[in-house]
Fold each of these.
Amino acid sequence: MEDFSDLILNETAMLASVTVIDIGLALLLTTVFNGILAKLYMMTHGGYSYSKSFVQALILVGITVALIMVIIGSDIARAFALVGAMSIVRFRTPVKDTKDLVFLFASIAVGMACGTQFYEFAGIFVGFMLIIVLAMHYGRFGDVKEEGYVLKMRMRTGDREYISKLCQDMCERFSVVSVSRMESGDNMEDIVYEVHLKRGIKYDQLVDTLSKAVDPLSISLLVGEGTVNA
């Protein structure tokens, strides 16, 4: 009985030590820090998978985590109870970009730091993220020097050798991905190349050159993911 009374008193004392000001400060700073992270994500995002709801979620997830950390405090029983409750929820939203996952973890980390009153650590982390991400973005860290494309053409079978010669002049390297012949027997084929352009050569120059040289029935150029992100 005494042990139970001591447990109740300890719980009450711990709850009393957390004031409304502490909770408000944790939520406010989490909102500010994760707002900076969300703005950083918007500035440096590349590609076609931008989502407004994901940017908003970066802030809301951090706020939620901050409140959870304030509630848990240093109580192990609450932590295990939270794990049991959260195990019921199934999150099935796919993350299209690895960088999105990094920002999501960063938002959670900021919420955890603010929820446990490590405000200075959260501020240092956000500042460090700001410097590193901007440096990589504007320094184009990770970009390759050559641009890769997928070239698809429908042309006469006898023109393949001439096309290969033109590609050799304009590309660092190229390779045939697939060839399919037309069943009608009209000496036409669909051929797919993977091409990496030389420095200074633009994709529209390649398309114009090939179109004028062999007059294909159709020609299409698919842009690689790295080029889309640029």
Note: The longest strand covers residues 171-181.
Amino acid sequence: MIVLRFTGGLGNQMFQYALYRYLKKRYPGETVKADVFWYSWNTAHQGFELLKLFKRKNNPAFELEEAGLGEVFRVSGKLPQKNEAIRYFNRLVRLFAGRHFEEKHIYEDGHEHSHEELKRRIDNIPSGRDAYITGYFLDEAYYRDNLEELRSCFTFDMEKISAENKALLTQIDSCEAVSIHVRRGDYLSKTYSDTFKVLSETYYKKAVEYIRERVTAPRFFIFSDDTDYVKEAFDYLENKVVVTGNTGVNSYQDMLLMSRCKYNITANSTFSEWAGLLNSFKKAIIIYPREYLSDKDSEIKTIDGWVRL
């Protein structure tokens, strides 16, 4: 059995789901399941959104089989519950059987010598052997060749889209729409400020200029968790719309709107990265930042239309 743990917000979940689909294809004779118990005790972001957004009768392409508690323990040696008694039990298991379970664990910790080595381990799980996989797996090797399939999985339920956003979609579909995503809120907090860079205005100005040199009459739709900031920072853009209102459980609707733009200027955020990956416009230009983490630049993408600035 192969079990993949899901953690983080919507963008991270979508990358993990891409790996889940990759594993299903790579190991057709094995059982591949998802460990989503992290969301039973972690309140980050909007919880586990994949099932809420994509699992429905009119979207048969999306499939996800969840692992039970016993199955997660079988492959990881841990009970995914957060209380003192369980933590003590897990410590005992690590003490007496840690090596047994470590051999099953394939993990991405951000310090691998190369993505090729990590992918080699993922691609060579022995037949019939248990494996527990953890990490975010943003490398395009896991999804580049399956983009069309993933786009069919990640279709939003238009019946749940607000009237205001449907009106915005009409505008977006009728012009040379360019999305700009600016993420600041949590990146400025104590939790993330040492990890993620807040992108400079220089990056966005270069990206806007790149688009203007290649697109006639672009119209810019700006998405951010700091609307006061973007109204001032992008005051030089005349033909713009600052999108507001999609917060909390409705924040995913920003991803839908961005994905329908013909061109995307993304942040160092998996959320806007997936907006670009869902963009199916044949002549799309998706600009992504070189700067990503405080100690690590973004991966170089080879997907047509993606430009690293």
Note: The mean pLDDT is 91.
Amino acid sequence: MKILFYPKLAFNGIKKNKRLYFPYLLTCSVMVMMMYITLYLARSESIANTPRGAWAQLCLWLGIIVISLFSLLFLFYSFSVLIKNRSREFGLYNVLGMNKRNIARILLWESIYTLITSILCGLFAGILLSRLAQLCLYKLIGTEPESGLLIDLGAVLITFFIFAVILFLLLLYSFVRIGRLSAVKLLHSEKEGEKAPKGNIFSALIGAVLLCIAYYLSVTTNAGIDAIFIFFIAVILVIAASYLLFISGSVSLCRMLKKNKKYYYRANHFVSVSTMAYRMKKNGAGLASICILSTMVLVMLTSTISLFSGIQTSTLIRSCDISLLIQYGSDKRGDTLTEYCDTALDTVKKKGGEPENLLSYDYLEVGGLYIDGEIIMKPVEVADNASANQIRDIYFITLSDYNRINGLCETLSDGELLIAGEEITGGGIKINGTQYSAKQAPMPQDITYGETIFEVMFVVLPDSKALYDMCLMNNEVYGESASQLTRYYGFDVGVDSAEEERLAGYVENALAEKYRGDERTIFFVEARCKTYDMLVATYGGLLFLGIFLGLVFVFATVLIIYYKQVSEGYEDRDRFATMRSVGMTEREIKKSINSQTLTVFFAPLIAAGVHLAFAFPIIAKTIRMFGFADTPLLLISNIICFAVFALFYIFAYKITSGIYLKIIER
């Protein structure tokens, strides 16, 4: 009988505290389910063997790391709320004769029950939903499904190990917390943090300053590699500022409301403001957590939805079905290059294709600096000290090619250039010390400039001789690492993706066979559909991960709201019982409760909307490095996602506020 004493006591403890334990067990089970599904998809050979699956699985492995870290942090939060609300129960055990070791045994058995329940329920749900998740991923990346429902034992073992470690760490935390408190403190630990806060204007000001700095960085940061690092810095600043403002700023808000006699000395406001003032430290931290999670959901969903929806307009996709890029030395020009194009066209015709919409142009791509109206070509070791915002990916093209591509009739006088992609001030520009007059021009429409983490600018030169001279300057500066002149040939074939890729393969083989041994010329053949497939797989995987993690964060947001309402309900129950005894009516109590919840509950949603609005510029610049160029689409995604999330947030408020009212009415 003694052997079953602690397991039975632990089971009864879970049963009696089901209002607190059920959400915790549900959280553990959902996290297990999400982890198994992500591992199942990331390890799936059927997905890896599809044309686009490998790219998607790279994104999923990133998601596994995120889910693991978030599970640890969020389960720690849920468990700390649970332990605090059960401290009085453990204090009673201690008073009735149990020592801390006996209580530790109860906690150990509760952790075992939690692990078994969450693993069984989570894996059961994960295995059932893994096929649905697989079909959704196949749909997003545009691949036909290959296999039915399978169970990945490796994913099961990894999931079990991860959550066994997490629950073991939480058990150690409970041992430390219970072990450090006496029986008296355990009995009264639920009342901790209810001293009237002194408030800290200095902390609130620091929070406001940090938030302003984060917003300033987001609005003023230029596109380029710096945008990624500054984005993470801004995220850290926003998180710190949110916690400081919601904790210290909410205290200041309560003080201001108290000073407003017309507002404070009313039945429905007097109790609510006084109650908030006594637990604003804990309340503020919970509200800040809700705000941060809401912002994370919105940023992830808007970014991934925009990337996936904007694939067709991505700057990484060539405008022609089949593209031939020929890198050649400055001494190899004219008819020799035309032969490459003729060979490509003849090969396509022989294989049954019909080339059309021919596009051809020469360009020189150079990495350089743009500082105070001057383009500076410098070797890497010299340019290392430059700011990333000053680095440019510069394309030099001829005026005739530029006019033909854009359907324009621009002209240039002696010593004059056209500049696209960079604002020109003063009417002039320098290139390695040589002064030119310059005119602003629109970006070329059909030139694909590929993957780059830096801003792109185009310099339109008068003729081929000027392009050749710029190539000589480039060779002189960069030596062996200098860029080569490149001729682009592109044409459409009007066939499906499989045939398009097959024709591109024929072209590549024909050129390799005919020009074998020509070491002065390097060529590349690209099929537009292949780049499209890669982007669909990558962005589809990111979208799937964004939706997946978004669901996790939304679930976490709802659970924090739930715990906040339940914890405060139990704390406020005695206060409102006292208010009833001194004559406060049920109607006045409900008005007071509504005043309390509405005063602070929607603050996280409003703050998340403000964060999202100020994050818009830096998000647009960051995803631009993924080839995304449709800023209006990103704006529309932001508005729609925020509106949908706000509706969901209101629904969560309605449900959880009803639970709070039920606790108060008992």
Note: The chain has a mean pLDDT of 76.
